Amino acid sequence: MKAGVIAVQGDVSEHADAVRRAAASHGVDAEVVEIRDAGVVPDCDVLLMPGGESTTISRLLHEEGIDEEIVAHVAADKPLLATCAGLIVASRDAKDDRVATLDVLDVSVDRNAFGRQADSFEAPLDVTGLDEPFPAVFIRAPVIDEVGGDVAVLASWDDDPVAVQQGSVIATSFHPELTPDSRIHDLAFFRQEHAESPAGTGADA
Ligand code: GLN
């Protein structure tokens, strides 16, 4: 399985480790590539779009021509896990002219609505599809304030959705890569029906 981590900016190596751990738990070798240029996304089975600074990430994706490749990846029903700033970039509307959203996920978001960096926190979160709560780390996290009809809410915090799914896209306000727990990566890449064949496992979905 070839996993591409969007690496124009943000926390890349943690996602690479998490996808390797999730793959290993299925006996699958993940080849992880860091994506900074156009031309790599089309070869990837799954994609990760990390946290960081959404204004910077969206600008660089556009400058490098990677933005359209991500849209095509999702249009081909291939898995994408977008976290925090990645969620903002994936959304339909970030209510901020500096973020050119990709509109691959029918949600609107409020950037930094969970507060400033100092207000970062960790909370045990009930997530649809996981047996035990997930230790969710929130860092200047976006709030999802509107969810389209095709979007399933997988987890909420204080009545706000913080993990959502639309087709092959799973997105979280929090940072699932910052704990040793790789169950969100597992959910995104190995437990969706359509993820079966791209992930190359043929395993139980
Ligand atoms: N606040 C950041 C943004 O708006 C996202 C924070 C993060 O990814 N941890 O881009």
**β-strand amount:** 25-35%
CATH fold assignment: Rossmann fold
Query: What is the CATH top level name?
Result: Alpha Beta
Q: Kindly name the structural category.
A: alpha/beta
> CATH homologous superfamily?
Class I glutamine amidotransferase (GATase) domain
Question: What is the strand and helix layout of this fold?
Answer:
Elements lengths: L1 E5 L5 H13 L6 E5 L10 E4 L4 H11 L2 H9 L4 E4 L1 H6 L16 E4 L10 E5 L8 E5 L4 E5 L4 E6 L2 E7 L2 E4 L10 H8 L5 H4 L6
The structure holds glutamine.
The site of glutamine has 11 residues, from helix 4.
List keywords for this structure.
disordered C terminus, 205 residues, Rossmann fold, seven-stranded mixed β-sheet, alpha/beta, 11 strands, 26% strand, two-stranded antiparallel ribbon, binds glutamine, EC 3.5.1.2, Class_I_gatase-like, 25% helix, pyridoxal 5'-phosphate synthase (glutamine hydrolysing) activity
Could you explain how this protein is built, in words?
25% of the residues lie in helices and 26% in strands. It has 205 residues and is of the alpha/beta class. The protein has one domain (2-199): Class I glutamine amidotransferase (GATase) domain (Rossmann fold). The strands form three sheets. The chain has a seven-stranded mixed β-sheet with strand order 2-1-3-4-11-10-9, sandwiched between helices. The protein has a two-stranded antiparallel sheet with strand order 5-8. Strand 6 and strand 7 (134-138) form a beta hairpin. The chain starts with a strand and ends in a 6-residue tail after the last helix. Mean pLDDT is 92; it is low at 194-205. Bound molecules: glutamine. Glutamine (GLN) is lined by residues 51-54, 84-85, 88, 111-112, 139-140. One of its GO terms (biological process) is pyridoxal phosphate biosynthetic process.
